[in-house]
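All the exercises in this workshop are built on plain-text protein records. An example says more than a description, so a record of this kind follows:
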Amino acid sequence: MQNHELETMEVEPALSDKEMDDLDNFLMSDATSNEVMLLDCLDGYLTAVASGPVKLNQSEWLPRVWGPTAEDAPTFDSKAEEEQIIGLMARHLNAIVWNLQQEDEPFEPVFDLNVYLDDEREYVDGEMWAHGYMTAISLHLDRWNALFESKHGVEMLRPIYLLGAEDVSEEEEKLVETPAQREDLSRTIPASVGWIFKFWAPQRRAEEIRTSGRSSSEDTPKISRNAPCICGSGRKFKKCCGASAE
């Protein structure tokens, strides 16, 4: 698979354990507000940025990491610290894209692990991760409409929605009441993310061609305009990703 989602420069390696700890420690420090995304939430947020319909500029996704308002922006000790922390997030985003492109390797989200009183078992919990993913969708909700309208899109998004959405119904809340329920849903998320990433791949590619000024005839295979769109939306190519390419 060609790495069209990544920058043309050589991809930097994924964050080391120490670098992940450095990022985690900064997010939990007094330099940030109470509204900042912690590491698991940030990972879900950046995963949605990586797997969504269009590539977002850093200026579009970064402010929401700190919180919903401009007052939530962090206080950095120095310009060097600011560049370090933002650089770690940008590298982590690229690492997520790379991970999603490796069809022979499982996608590995950063989930929380919880232990409860009177229960010795440790539970995987993707609730905050899913909240981050849903927050990224809300940045440009209208751009995700093709997924919501597709045959399997809502089904694939459902575990992320149940764990991370703020406006679920009472019946849906009953599906995430227990640690075991949340763990079961969390374990289905990697497959959902992989499916969503592939669903949007043609549109991301079409947008890249459009913004770069390259000819679509040179970079994409020939597809009949009246054929079903290869993204799986169920619409004709000319009214879906083909329209974006044009």
